[in-house]
């Protein structure tokens, strides 16, 4: 088996966008605080995992239920453990491991893709039967409910997007889809009325008019827009963004890295970032299209939605089109949870390409 049996354009595009992320992180953080060094480690580990998983035969997931079920239980266990770990910004979404933090919700998203690809590929001829939709819903609701209680509404929404997209591609009945949408609206209302605290509601609705409280709940979004606008066409240059350098833009390495990137590299840099992201999505879907098995087709759809939803939410939050959710931007946000989960998923995709 050779390196040439995988999708080389996909591998090259992922390596290129990850390298861009490292350069971008250098401009944001420099060498201080160890963030750049850790990001280099995350990227190197991620690329290694993608390469390693490309040699692992994905048919173990397609043909055997036990490893998939064990992975599901493991992810549930990690999600529950977050309630006994350190709270960060009022949210119990992370496991603190020494100097590192790990967010189980990111791994759970990959788990959901594998589980639904396995489940629907075996039952696609029966997808019009409500009982199979209900069972898939139970698989979805257990981890999603934990995310909402944490509360990590952003991850729960993306989790739901993955599930719904794979249901749709599997051929769900329109009547059943309508019932799910109604149930989702009810669940959102209950979450809003019962689970979320007032300060969390304020954070969600602040995007509507951030200038109502420019030094409080609207501050983050205002500074994000200023950073994006100051980048103009070609940006202020690497490490020369005033919003980041002077500390006006909060969470520049994470939640608002899209704005920090626009400030440094301008519209041209954002165009390059989005173009490369689009090419990666195209190669992912192409692998699914060429796959001879429903598992491969469904898995590629799930991975495409996983990455696309993070891009969509990450950009929309920074511009002010969506509430602030704390969702990492794929390949360039600081942290290893999203990076490792996405890279393992891409490695499985490369295995689908390799083994057919």
Automatic annotation (TrEMBL):
InterPro entries: FtsW/RodA. Its main location: membrane. It is found in: Membrane. One of its GO terms (cellular component) is plasma membrane. The chain crosses the membrane at residues 6-28, 40-58, 64-84, 130-149, 155-172, 177-195, 265-286, 298-321, 327-349. The keyword Ribonucleoprotein does not apply. Signal peptide: none annotated. Keywords: Cell shape, Membrane, Transmembrane, Transmembrane helix. One of its GO terms (biological process) is regulation of cell shape. One of its GO terms (molecular function) is lipid-linked peptidoglycan transporter activity. Pfam families: FTSW_RODA_SPOVE. It is a multi-pass membrane protein. This is Cell elongation-specific peptidoglycan biosynthesis regulator RodA. It comes from Candidatus Yanofskybacteria bacterium GW2011_GWC2_41_9.
């Amino acid at each position: 088996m050779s390196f040439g049996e995988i999708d080389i354009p996909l591998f090259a595009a992922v390596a290129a966008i990850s390298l861009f992320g490292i350069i971008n992180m250098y401009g944001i953080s420099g060498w201080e605080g160890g963030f750049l060094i850790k990001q280099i480690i995350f990227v190197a580990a991620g690329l290694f995992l993608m390469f390693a998983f490309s040699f692992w035969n994905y048919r173990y997931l397609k043909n055997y239920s036990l490893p998939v079920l064990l992975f599901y239980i493991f992810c549930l266990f990690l999600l529950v453990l977050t309630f006994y770990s350190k709270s960060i910004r009022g949210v119990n979404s992370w496991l603190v491991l020494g100097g590192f933090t790990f967010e189980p919700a990111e791994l759970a998203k990959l788990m959901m893709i594998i589980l639904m690809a396995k489940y629907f590929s075996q039952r696609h001829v029966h997808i019009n039967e409500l009982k199979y939709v209900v069972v898939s819903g139970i698989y979805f609701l257990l981890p999603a409910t934990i995310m909402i209680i944490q509360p990590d509404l952003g991850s729960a929404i993306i989790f739901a997007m993955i599930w719904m997209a794979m249901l749709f591609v599997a051929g769900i009945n329109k009547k059943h889809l309508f019932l799910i949408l109604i149930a989702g609206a009810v669940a959102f209302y209950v979450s809003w009325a019962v689970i979320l605290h007032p300060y969390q509601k304020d954070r969600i609705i602040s995007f509507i008019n951030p200038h109502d409280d420019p030094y409080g709940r609207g501050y983050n979004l205002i500074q994000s827009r200023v950073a994006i606008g100051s980048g103009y066409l070609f940006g202020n240059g690497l490490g020369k963004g005033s919003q980041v350098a002077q500390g006006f833009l909060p969470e520049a390495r994470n939640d608002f890295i899209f704005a920090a990137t626009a400030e440094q590299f301008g519209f041209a840099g954002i165009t390059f970032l989005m173009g490369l992201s689009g090419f990666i999505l195209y190669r992912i879907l192409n692998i699914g299209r060429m796959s001879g098995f429903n598992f491969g087709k469904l898995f590629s759809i799930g991975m495409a939605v996983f990455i696309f939803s993070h891009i969509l939410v990450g950009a929309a939050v920074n511009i002010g089109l969506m509430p602030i959710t704390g969702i990492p931007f794929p390949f360039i946000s600081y942290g290893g949870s999203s990076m490792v989960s996405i890279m393992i998923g891409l490695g499985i995709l490369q295995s689908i390409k390799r083994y057919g």
